Amino acid sequence: MTFPHGESADVELSAGDTTIGTAEGSTIRIAGVGVSANHARMHHSSAGLWLRNLGSSIHVNSRAVAELALLRAGDRVHLGDVEMLLRSVAEPMPVPAEPMPADKVREIEHGTVVLRGLSGPVSGQVFVLNDVLRIGSDEHAQIPLDSRYAAAEEARLELIGDCVMLVSTSPVTPRVNGWPVQQVVLAHGDQIEVRGLRFMLSAPGLAKRASCEVRAQEMAELKQESEHEMVPPNETATGAWLRLLLMALALAAVITALLLFLPSL
Known about the structure:
- The chain is of the alpha+beta class.
- Among the domains are: 16-86, Tumour Suppressor Smad4; 114-210, Tumour Suppressor Smad4.
- Helix content is 18%, strand content 31%.
- The chain has 2 helices and 20 strands.
- β3 (40-45) and β4 (48-53) form a beta hairpin.
- The longest helix is centred in the last third of the chain and has 25 residues, at 237-261.
- Mean pLDDT is 78; it is low at 90-110.
């Protein structure tokens, strides 16, 4: 267990219980805003490393922990304002994905667009965005998720010119810099969270967010105009009522004619 901001020296977690808090008897004694005397307890066994909340504020990969959480290498744990990064000896950090061949990488003006994994099983991995990068449990998703809790496609990133768009395709909306979003233009350095996994967009050559948003709005307006031209205009309410009235009058005329001429037959 490491502390990126130096609240404590690195700690190697042994089997059994590890207590964390400000109390003198804590296995890992740390001080920080929001850290209580007996904040949390970790239990390490053959069943894995479990974190138990003892009644304080705990987040794992930006997700609140009410009672228990199973930890894995690369997870980021926040106790109040103190951040801890789990680096397990028994479970090595994932090896970064091999770089894509240069002839298959689409470049923008100042380089490639990549999504860097920051937590959990994707920590340390790099995913290149060429056109579309899908995140989900589908076998064709470039960033696969566990099918037990993830939809076939949770979200996708689209590279449009030198702009990147994040589109949510699941009821559980992703977050960008902590804010839930349905569709948003991304900028270099944005942090994205999908189903508890965190990523960072690395693309120094991206266009400014404002100009991309203007372009996205223009594209949406053009699409609406195109769809409007393809669909024939609907009748107005007045026109519909007029047609019904004319049909009723015609039917009444036919009935009147029948009543007048039938007796003479």
